[in-house]
Specification:
Elements: E1 7-8, E2 19-20, E3 27-30, E4 33-36, E5 43-47, E6 67-71, E7 75-83, E8 90-96, E9 104-109, E10 114-122, E11 127-138, E12 141-152, E13 154-157, H1 161-164, H2 183-191, E14 200-202, H3 226-229, E15 238-243, H4 252-262, H5 270-296, E16 312-316, E17 330-331, E18 338-339, H6 341-365, E19 368-370, H7 404-419
Parallel strand pairs: 1-7, 5-12, 6-12, 13-14, 13-15, 15-16, 16-19
Antiparallel strand pairs: 2-12, 3-4, 5-7, 7-10, 8-9, 8-11, 11-12, 17-18
Helix pairs in contact: 2-7, 4-5, 5-6
Length: about 425
């Protein structure tokens, strides 16, 4: 998996106020490099300013700054660009990062022609920062500096037990069974390179239904929309939202799986016993999810504006639990009982139908959908190395939920989607 999503700045053709330490040449901005008005182009170096590597939908305008950046990666990388013969040129740059850290001084001699990394800095808190860059040069060179505005955005992970990390172990304190091995934690640590969870707001909670987006699960567990409303997630401050929702609605699917795991061959099949409850759940879920997604992303619902209109919003489905076309029984983990082949086929179909409803709701609401039906392929239940837990006596909340390896597979899928946004 990639180890970070840096924010790289490149100069764009916009009006700017420059601080130029040499009067040898006055230029205009064109194509990302200051163009000389004389016939001989001297050596010069400037901030490479405004193409932002970000998971936010676009960047804010910043007429008072050389460039603006926003993103979820807490490490900001500032790139300069040089042109002309840089032989004998030495540049001394000073970076004030606007977070009480010491001024960083960088000295570069004979920089390469083109782009080069001048400095990088990791922020410890979400917020908006103005980076003041000044400098001087020696030799027949021109240096252009200025200010950059950087907005560090939030990654808000919402959803039910498949997002909180039931079954993945190493749980965080609290009532929601949130795992340090859950895919939101893996994305934050490995993709954004942020082991301190600077940008992650982890709101997913075991047992959450679609109704719990707007209403609390209990006195200690708030409605999940508050994680998009709290002060550090005020409008325009969220860059990414991910979630799974619907699988815990009325505990229908867990109850179905528990029956299927415990039934004997003398009792009703899974389909005979549970088709009515499943059909009822499927009949409601697409509309419920569409409404929830719209509240997050793209429309006014009941007069309220979207909570994260500028963010990238990703809905996941649920992975298939059993191998396709399994013809043999396999252990369920429940009192030496077996899953029957016909039950496994029917349950795979239920998951597929549910995922179709989820995708339809996401498309209708204008958000991204990740098809993870095959995420555990080769590692389903009944396989030698399953990415999903069978029935667990000692910790029933882990039953039929992804292991840590399962969450790593889900994180890989999400990271591939995010990777398409890299500059």
């Amino acid at each position: 998996m990639p180890l970070g999503l840096p924010v790289v700045l490149r100069l764009v053709s916009v009006a700017m106020t420059w601080s130029t330490s040499s009067a040898e040449t006055q230029g205009t901005v064109a194509g990302g490099i200051a163009q000389a008005t004389s016939s001989h182009e001297p050596a010069r170096t400037s901030i490479d300013g405004a193409a932002i590597r970000s998971v936010a939908a676009g960047t804010a305008s910043c007429p008072a700054h050389e460039a603006c950046a926003q993103g979820i990666d807490p490490t900001l990388k500032v790139v300069f660009v040089s042109s002309g013969d840089q032989t004998g040129c030495t540049y001394t740059l000073k970076f004030k990062w606007d977070d009480k850290s010491p001024v960083q001084t960088v000295t570069v001699s004979d920089p390469p022609d083109g782009k080069w990394l001048a400095a990088k800095h990791t922020y410890a808190a979400r917020g908006t920062y103005t980076i003041n860059i000044t400098g001087s040069e020696s030799g027949p060179c021109t240096l252009t500096t200025g200010d950059i505005q950087f907005k560090l955005l939030s990654y808000v992970a919402l959803g039910d037990s498949y997002s909180s990390g039931n079954g993945a172990g190493d749980y965080l304190p609290g009532d929601c069974i949130r795992s340090r091995n859950a895919y939101p934690e893996l994305i934050e640590h490995e993709f954004f390179g942020d082991p301190k969870d600077t940008t992650l707001i982890f709101g997913a909670c075991s047992g959450a239904s679609t109704a719990n987006f707007d209403s609390s699960q209990s006195g200690s567990i708030p409605a999940q929309k508050v994680y998009l409303e709290e002060p550090e997630s005020k409008p325009g401050s969220v860059g990414l939202v991910t979630f799974t929702f619907g699988g815990d609605n009325d505990h229908v699917f867990f109850n179905v799986l528990r029956y299927c795991a415990a039934r004997t061959v003398f009792e009703e099949t899974c389909e005979e016993h549970s088709k009515g409850a499943v059909a009822d759940a499927l009949s409601k879920i697409e509309a419920d999810l569409k409404t929830l997604y719209e509240k997050v992303k793209n429309a006014k619902v009941n007069g309220e504006p979207a909570l994260a209109a500028g963010a990238k919003v990703i809905a996941l489905g649920y992975p298939r639990l059993f191998p396709i076309d399994r013809t043999k029984e396999c252990k369920t983990g429940y009192n030496r009982h077996d899953f029957q082949p016909s039950d496994m086929t029917w349950l795979n179909g239920v998951v597929k139908n549910f995922d179709t409803k989820t995708e339809n709701g996401a498309r209708a609401a204008g958000i991204s959908y990740i098809n993870d039906i095959n995420a555990f392929s080769g590692h389903e239940l009944c396989q030698r190395d399953p990415y999903v837990n069978a029935f667990e006596y000692t910790s029933p909340h882990d039953s039929f939920h992804p292991t840590g390896a399962g969450h790593a597979a889900l994180a890989d899928l999400i990271e591939k989607d995010l990777g398409s946004l890299k500059a």
